Sequence to fold (191 residues):
Amino acid sequence: MIDDPALAGLQRSLSEYREAKRKMKIRLAEIEAEAEMLRSQLSTFDAIIEQTELALRRVLFPADSQPAPLSDRSRFSHQSPNRYDPATFHLPATEAEIEAEVAKIQQDEQSSNVRFNDFRIPQAATIVLREADRPLHVSEIYRQMAEGGFEFRGQHQLITLAVSLSRSKRFRKVAPGTFELDPEYRAGQVA
Fold:
């Protein structure tokens, strides 16, 4: 072995580069394995998306997602005008069309339920809690009010509801995020 410092430095550098190369190969193998796993997950998601879109089409257009054979189409001519007509009807083909159709259905459902339409938060929440006859979590009160047609405004609707319930004397907080009607208001009017 030679005692030349330059040669010793080269040998050390060579060992360091070999070790770095070895670590890089290991990392590359890990990345390739992860990429293969992600590709597999992507193909699974593609299949799920395709099945979900098909299910949505079937829900949105129950009799129309699979056109009836020509011999059966004449049966539908005297029925509802919403039946399948290849000349005027098309299934939503894109994600945006499906989302627009779902939004339209949700809007129709919300506009058809006007139970709490003209109420303020305390009034609607009083009705919900009186009907439940037990303490409810804010999220459950919110859900029932929304189902009843109450229109919440703002971005933080649950927080708005919780603050409103906390500030009103007709409600009493019994657990984190859970409220009941104060006994004084339980037998009283909604207003």
